[in-house]
Design goal:
single chain; 265 residues; mainly alpha; two-stranded parallel ribbon; 11 helices; PIR Superfamily Protein; membrane
């Protein structure tokens, strides 16, 4: 007999796990750049926005993490995901007129961090908060669609009210964005289509489930508890020190230099 799909499933989705893995680590990825004048100057512009003081280190550390990636397709994907994560962090802390401004400053920090042939993020800034929220919802939904579809089937399309609410919100946002990408020349629609092009080649079928009452015995109990899933994916911050990260990136170059020296000899 299939069980009822509960709300904790949402936090186990691939997009959610990716955000936690990639952008919420306790490792200090900025330790190499903290003393660089260009980086400090770009970062100092964030001081004008007191409402984000409590999350500034968190935002900048995510930018530092991505800056270690080489330029190319992987960089582009990370920057798109980072854009949605950053915007989500800023969403409830900034007013409409400050939202795009801070996104622009964070783009400047990314460019100040990145060396030659390293990842530089160019974020889409010409967007209202309401549209950004829908873009993020749809980006995550497209990433997770196949997983959600197969999981709903395994649970005989029964769910609690939290899953049902999530699906209603996601499918409504997808319908709106899909129509926009097909018929409109609005800048945010054109930009969004670049982020997840596969999501709009063929229209996704709406996903829905029948709300069922979860018995007290099974309330909050399921294999989708994130405390079960995350340890397999998330690097424990205590495992690696800053010096170990430094060696991880520097040793390959030392090895190449040593090999070159031996060949020269």
């Amino acid at each position: 007999m299939s069980t009822i799909l509960q709300g904790n499933f949402i936090e186990s989705l691939q997009s959610k796990v990716y955000y936690r893995n990639m952008f919420e680590s306790q490792i200090d990825y900025c330790f190499v750049s903290n003393d660089e004048i260009k980086f400090k100057k770009a970062r100092s512009k964030l001081n004008e926005y007191e409402k984000i003081n409590s999350i500034e280190n968190r935002l900048v550390n995510a930018l530092c993490h991505v800056s270690f990636t080489d330029a190319g397709e992987k960089c582009d994907k990370q920057c798109h995901n980072l854009y949605y994560w950053l915007g989500n962090e800023l969403f409830n802390k900034l007013e409409e007129d400050s939202f795009s401004e801070v996104i622009g400053i964070l783009e400047g920090v990314s460019n100040a961090l990145s060396g030659p042939d390293k990842c530089k993020c160019n974020f889409f800034k010409n967007v209202k908060k309401e549209k950004f929220e829908k873009m993020k919802i749809v980006s995550d939904y497209c990433e997770d669609y196949e997983n959600i579809e197969s999981t709903l089937k395994a649970h005989n399309y029964t769910c609690d009210k939290n899953v049902s609410h999530y699906l209603h919100k996601a499918t409504d946002a997808y319908e709106e964005i899909y129509e926009c990408t097909q018929e409109s020349a609005k800048s945010y629609c054109t930009e969004f289509k670049k982020h997840v092009p596969s999501c709009f080649k063929k229209k996704l079928s709406p996903l829905k489930c029948e709300i069922k009452q979860v018995s007290a015995e099974y309330q909050g109990k399921s294999q989708y508890n994130t405390s079960i899933f995350d340890p397999k994916y998330v690097i424990n911050a205590s495992t690696f020190s800053s010096s170990q990260i430094f060696l991880f990136f520097v040793l390959p170059f030392v090895g190449l230099f040593f090999i070159g020296f031996l060949l020269y000899k």
